[in-house]
Write a structure and sequence with these properties.
The chain is an alpha/beta fold. It is 35% helix and 20% strand. The protein is built from 13 helices and 20 strands. Strands 4-5-8-9-10-11-12-13 form an eight-stranded parallel beta barrel, surrounded by four helices. Strand 15 and strand 16 form a beta hairpin. The N and C termini lie far apart (46 Å). The structure holds D-gluconic acid (GCO) and magnesium ion. Magnesium ion binds next to loops. This is Mannonate dehydratase. GO terms for molecular function: mannonate dehydratase activity.
Length: 409
């Protein structure tokens, strides 16, 4: 059969999402997530202005060939915009193939390797008391793993800390509505952070015991030697992982961190290709691959990346913040269930408005997710509900040091 229609949907039920809809000549519909936080319209244009006409009339079953056609065909390769667009096409085609087979996608990826997908929640608080409340709330819901982020003395609002107060369903959304054409700004000081964080981990271990899996995101803010020192300082608190300790584009920076510490390392949410991982994987400089299916070329590319990682004993930790739509999240869950080298899955539940627009089949039970058994990805976009939420320009903040120098956010 052939692809007959290619439509791009932009909706904003609380935050912006870009979703690709592919319809085959016999009426099967597949969905793909193309959301790139703060640059949504660039991917939407890439899809509708450049890829749509290349897709119409193609055989929807030739997923690998379509991937190569879109990746190698245009000469220009990689980058988050291109790879998010290719990812959306790839997800939609897998959705169609699994619907045609009458199976949930994970069956086509080899079937379930586990009963449920262990997820980690985002716990944060402006101070330790608030953070402790948030962790307690997640433990009550059955979570066995939490990512912890907290305010740093001397700094205001910073990455990862909810401004709306602690809780287990707080709306932490770093992309802020753009009022005057420019993003909001935050302030940062790495010395304050490095002095403050180890004490926080010590208190968490004291209050919550040895079993809790503790994760933390450095959000690319440390230099290689700062990250090496930090990873070494926090060894006694047995983190599950330290994420994005140094800027993502410098793969060799992690050699220095590795030389000094056994704290497990995760990186990759800003990566978009297996080539971003070549040094990291072959030299075993990381323990977890953090790519999003949405930003790394879709299911086809992620499966290859994770198989490559498996050879080196490296596991998955797929990116799953709220800027990954429920479609992108479903793609992650099907992979998580099927692959052998699953590590953990990030889970920031979407708000109710988003879940009215995207009807999902995944289920949460005491810290574990399952993608459900609906044929395909198991998520359908309600286009009528989506049309009620108009795109609103929103950007991630820009970060500056206390003296005004622009720093990694
Ligand atoms: C994470 C990420 C996110 C990103 C966000 C940017 O670990 O979940 O760091 O919080 O900042 O996805 O769009
Ligand atoms: Mg992160």
């Amino acid at each position: 059969m052939t692809i007959e229609l290619v439509d791009v949907n932009i909706t904003s039920p609380g935050r912006n999402f870009v979703t690709l809809k592919i319809t085959t000549a016999d009426g099967v519909v597949g969905w793909g997530d193309a959301t790139l936080n703060g640059r949504e319209l660039a991917v939407a244009s890439y899809l509708s202005d450049h890829l749509a006409s290349m897709l119409i009339g193609r055989d929807e079953d030739r997923i690998e060939d379509t991937w190569q056609y879109l990746y190698r065909g245009p000469y220009w390769r990689r980058g988050p915009v291109t790879m998010a667009a290719i990812a959306a096409v790839d997800m939609a085609l897998w959705d169609i193939k699994a619907k045609k087979a009458g199976m949930p996608l994970y069956q086509l990826l080899g079937g379930a390797s586990r009963e449920g997908i262990r997820v980690y929640a985002h716990a944060s608080g402006t101070d330790y008391a608030a953070l402790k409340d948030a962790i307690t709330g997640y433990e009550e819901l059955g979570y066995t793993a939490v990512r912890v982020q907290t305010g740093v003395p001397g700094l205001g609002q910073i990455y990862g800390v909810s401004a709306t107060g602690p809780g287990v369903r707080y709306d932490y959304e770093p992309a802020k509505r753009v009022e005057n054409g420019r993003p909001s700004e935050e302030r940062w000081d790495t010395r304050n952070y490095l002095a403050h964080m180890p004490g926080i981990f010590a208190r968490i271990r004291e209050d919550f015991g040895a079993d809790l899996r503790i994760l933390h995101d450095g959000h690319h803010r440390m230099s290689p030697i700062e990250a090496a020192r930090f990873a070494k300082d926090i060894e006694p608190y047995d983190l599950f992982w330290l994420e994005d300790c140094t800027p993502g584009e410098d793969q060799s920076a992690l050699r220095l961190v590795r030389q000094h510490s056994t704290t497990p390392l995760a990186i990759g949410e800003v990566f978009n290709s297996v080539f971003d991982y070549q040094t990291l994987i072959t030299e075993r400089l990381i323990d977890y691959v953090r790519s999003a299916v949405t930003h790394t070329g879709g299911i086809t590319a992620m499966k290859k990346l994770l198989d490559f990682a498996a050879i080196y004993g490296i596991k998955s930790g797929i990116h799953g913040p709220t800027d990954i739509s429920p479609v992108g999240m479903a793609a992650a869950l099907h992979l998580d269930l099927a692959i052998h080298n699953f590590g953990i899955q990030e889970y920031m539940p979407h708000n109710d408005r988003t879940l009215e627009v995207f009807q999902t089949s995944f289920t949460f039970d005491r810290g574990f997710l399952h993608p459900g058994d609906r044929p395909g990805l198991g998520v359908e976009l309600d286009e009528d509900a989506a049309s009620g939420h108009e795109y609103t320009k929103a950007y991630l903040p820009v970060n500056r040091l206390l003296d005004g120098t622009v720093h990694d956010w």
